[in-house]
What does this fold into?
Amino acid sequence: MRLQSLLLGLLLMAFNSGVYAGGEKPLVIIKDFKFIPQEITVKRGQVLRWENREKRQYHSVWFEALGEEEPDYFFPDESFEREFKQAGTFPYRCGPHPRMTGTVHVID
Ligand SMILES: [Cu+2]
It folds into this structure.
């Protein structure tokens, strides 16, 4: 599993797929019941931010596969932040809308 994460990290670096540098704050926009981008790559230790830009719909960002409890919903013009302390691939979903899914790749 650890080797897989490492290989995935190297692969992502090789493709240079928009990894956020130290000073930038990685951001996922929520609009029209979608996480945009659906997949994002951050560096270990970075804080990722989700901003709800719907007109009136609330959402949540739930790392269900990690066994975490569903966090509170957040509403338009509100945001949610989460720090990623471990490298790996972390799928998540919206609690009330199971078809809304995203993935965070965390690399060293
Ligand atoms: Cu939702």
Q: What stands out?
A: Residues 9-16 have pLDDT under 50 and may be disordered. The domain at 2-107 is CATH 2.60.40.420 (Immunoglobulin-like).
